[in-house]
Amino acid sequence: MGSRIRLTSKGSKLIAIVLVASVVGAGFGYWMLAPKMPSPLVTHTTQRTSLVTSSKASSTSTSSSTTATTGTTLWLNVTASKPVSYYLALLKSTQTQPYVQLAWELQGLPDLTNATAVAKITYLALNATNPEVKEAFQLMMKGGTPDPRDYTYTVPDYNTELQVLYWLALQNEFKKDDTLALAIAMVNGFWVTIGDNQVRWSVRKDANDLLGFLRETNELQSARGYYQLENYPLEAKVCLAWTGGDPNRGGHMTTQRGGNVRRPLNIHALTEYSSRPIDLTGYEWNTVSVDTLRRARQLVEERAWIDRSVDKTVNSLEEYFYLSSRPAWNFTWPENQGFVRVNGETTLNRNFNNADFEFEHFILYGKAIGVCGDEAVLIDALSKSWGISTTIVTRTWQGPDGNNHMHVAYYEPVSRVWKALEKQVSTFDSRERGKGAQNLYIFKPPVVHCNFFDGQQDDKQRLLMLRFYYSMKNVATEDVIQIFTHGMSNSQMKQWLLYS
Hints:
Layout: E1 23-28, E2 43-48, E3 66-68, E4 74-76, H1 84-93, H2 99-107, H3 115-126, H4 131-143, H5 160-171, H6 179-194, H7 197-224, H8 234-241, E5 252-256, E6 262-266, H9 280-286, H10 290-302, H11 310-323, E7 329-331, E8 339-342, E9 345-348, H12 355-365, E10 368-370, H13 372-385, E11 390-397, E12 404-412, E13 417-419, H14 422-425, H15 429-432, E14 438-443, E15 455-457, E16 464-466, E17 469-475, H16 477-486, E18 488-489, H17 490-499
Parallel strand pairs: 7-10
Antiparallel strand pairs: 1-2, 3-4, 5-6, 8-9, 11-12, 11-14, 12-13, 13-18, 14-17, 15-16
Helix pairs in contact: 1-2, 1-3, 3-5, 4-6, 5-6, 5-7, 6-7, 6-8, 10-13, 11-13
């Protein structure tokens, strides 16, 4: 049984905007380290039109501080590191952003004492040949420090995304252009921002475990000749690294509220933590554990659900659990509504956002439980267990029935597009086509913390759609189907997920 589960019972048309960006990539060579202060950097800059094109940097290895391999990894000689102040001065001497700000924000971390870890972050930043490394640091500098005005409780006064990156550097070597490690730091800083001390210690462990797990998965993909997750673009890695599902839902309970009126109350939805820090129970409820991801990876292999084609893999999962004529799913709305006990808490048997619970329920009873949002969270976790990047989409209709539906969108790496299965995108289509447009909400992992709890009510749904969704209103159903079945370019999704 998973380490964190105790189960006791059963607008108009959408026009795809093509992002055309010229990204300046800097290739920094390796340099000889001066005894006290760093020598001026020798750099060259090449204008690039692709976000994933790498430039070759001339390199002179420094025997006292690094060992450069001919592969993709830059290994540091941990016995030859200089003081923390050296690496901070090295970053500042570039006189270039985001590296100068990176130095100042590193300096603000409460436990910055390990020079080797700071060296790893410095070399990751300055030796990058992939422009997305610089892009990731720019995003971290923009959004990683919480604004205390957004919270009614005390939050850290330092860059929490950089804090997680430092924790990763304490226990891991960074690969050259290691945007996977950067992505894990970017999304997990949010839990450090809103979490209590127990949560922060758990995030430190979980982030390190997740990096190890995803690197293992990358090697399994390589051994089978599949596309490797470490070659994904930045926005796909950010979504892959997010283990929190869709935290706008998080279990419900019914409580007496005067007379005979009873209404559902959230238990662990993130909205509950806009006025108080999230505790360990809430954090573990909302995030899938690495233990569950390991067991899920074994399960999808044993059941032969994985395939070289990401399309086929996602289709196998969706058909088995939800879309076939006899799915492995216990639907609980509206006719089977009831209550279950999860981690000692009573909740309505739907809208859990608890992938650990869903996986355990399936293992014990042969079926998962809940509604479409619960299926989306489970498919999200199962897909990520094999290194497939996903995020969750919510669609609401403006017709008289006010239906809504949730499902995953996934990154297809061969064609570099984001897609969703046609059966999922077409749900309710026969009833709703021509009766009004849809509102479309794509979950954005929290890389920018400011104003994160701001939101607005959906027009027809009792849903508070916060800033962690990219929102499109009044979208024709036909356009939604076309966009997600043909695929949305990764450059467009990057704009929506990281910059909107």
